[in-house]
Structures are given as structure tokens and as C-alpha cells.
Amino acid sequence: MDTTGPEALVRDHTVYSCVMGSRAFGLATDSSDTDRRGVFLAPTPLFWRFDKPPTHVDGPADEQFSWELERFCELALRANPNVLECLHSPLVEHIDSVGRELLSLRAAFLSRLAHQTFVRYALGQRKKLEADIRQYGVPRWKHAMHLLRLLTSGRDLLRTGTLTIEVGPAREELLAVKRGEVAWPEVERRMVRLAEENEEAAKDSPLPPEPDRARVEDFLIRTRRASASWTDR
Q1: According to DSSP H, which parts of the chain are helical?
Q2: In whole angstroms, how far apart are CA 93 and each of 19, 34, 58, 80, 220?
Q3: Judging by beta carbons within 10 Å of its beta carbon (0-12, 13-18, 19+), is residue 137 exposed, middle or buried?
Q4: Residue 3 pLDDT
Q5: Does residue 109 contact residue 87 with C-beta atoms inside 8 Å?
Q6: Which CATH number fits domain 6-109+211-227: 3.30.460, 3.30.43, 1.10.8, 1.10.10?
Q7: How far apart are CA 53 and CA 70, in angstroms?
């Protein structure tokens, strides 16, 4: 059996995996997929070869995607919205001692950089929605719903210093957008308002200006050193 290929890395070396998407956000309906995200730790000896282990793996299951630990930490330190939200999923499916330490570092990844990344990502999605309207006359309502959700999540993170991905009482209001029951001008108005609220929240955010890179790097180095003793890989 292959013990070093991409699927084997996910199968044998996952330290943390969770359900993401609508199910984690509290927006699932009967037709919702189950999106799985994970983090695997490639054994250190694999990095001594010319061919390095992958930074991410698609699959092996449908709707499954995993990052190698170092790549995951890099993206989280940059306040990548998808990666930060993965760290805060309420639906954890697998976790080991390395995964538990990773989750204990959640606060170390958070910083005011989230203001730029959340809003920039939302702006990119809005441009795609506007392109849909020009081409088809209507936006992809599901994407519009998630854009509003993301802007709300970013605003609340900047206001409180805590990232909460479940939408709570906003569920029905957001699902109405997904069903196309809210006119596009009103959706646009909400987007603009939320973007402004993100700007205001960033001014007095309790978040630090930068993430705690040294703390995360210490974790990564210790984990790599421990993994170097896995001579059976």
C-alpha cells in the first residue's frame, strides 16, 4: 500500500478535519452538500527528498480538501477567510494532539489583517455577481447570500476579536436571499452597509495589528522535529 502518496497523507496523517460550508454556517437545507476540510502533517523525512510532499490535496472523497500543516498556517497568518473559518468550525470530525494544539493557537492567527482579506474577498465575489447580472440578468443568489454572511462575520470579528461562523438568528434572512426573494438593489444596499461597518470596526478593533507569527512558528518547528523521528515513513 502506498504510504506517501497524496491520498495516503490525508488518510494516515490528518491531524484535524471538520465540516465546512452551509452546514457549519447554520445555513444548510435538504439539498446542501457536505464540504469537508482538513489539515495533514506530512512526515518530516518526506521533505528530505527532491520531490516534496504536496501543499494541499483534493479528495479522496467528494467535496473534500486538505492542506499540509505548514501551508495551512501560512494562509491562516495571512488571514485567509476560508482557512480562518476552518479553524472555527463547530463540526469537528477528527482531531489528534497536533490538531488540538493547532486549535489552541486560533487567537494567534487573528489580526487586523482580516479587515483587508475579508473585504477584499467579498469585493471579488461582488464583481462576479455583477458580471452574472450583466450576462444573465440575475446574480447567483447562493453566492450573494454567502457574500453577506462573510461581510457580517468579518465585521463581528473586527468588533469583538472573536470569529464566529454560525449565522444564528440571521439564518432566515440569509436564506431568503439565497431563494431570490430579496431584490438585488436591497442586497447591494446591505453589502455597502456591511462594508462600511467593516471599515468602522477596523478603526477600534481589539485585534492586534499583526498575528503572532513567532508563536505559530514555534509550534510548527516543534511539530516538524517530532515528526522527524518517524523512521517508518
Answers
A1: 6-13, 22-25, 69-77, 81-87, 97-104, 106-109, 113-136, 141-160, 171-178, 184-203, 213-227
A2: 7, 12, 18, 22, 22
A3: exposed
A4: 61
A5: yes
A6: 3.30.460
A7: 11
- Distances in Å between the alpha carbon of 130 and those of 35, 140, 186, 218, 225? 26, 10, 14, 44, 49
Residue 2's pLDDT is 55
pLDDT of residue 30: 87
Mean pLDDT of the chain: 94
What strands lie across the sheet with 35-40, from one edge to the other? Answer: 56-58, 64-68, 35-40, 14-20, 92-95
pLDDT > 70: what percent of the chain?
97
Q: What is the pTM of this model?
A: 0.92
Domain boundaries in the chain?
6-109+211-227, 113-203
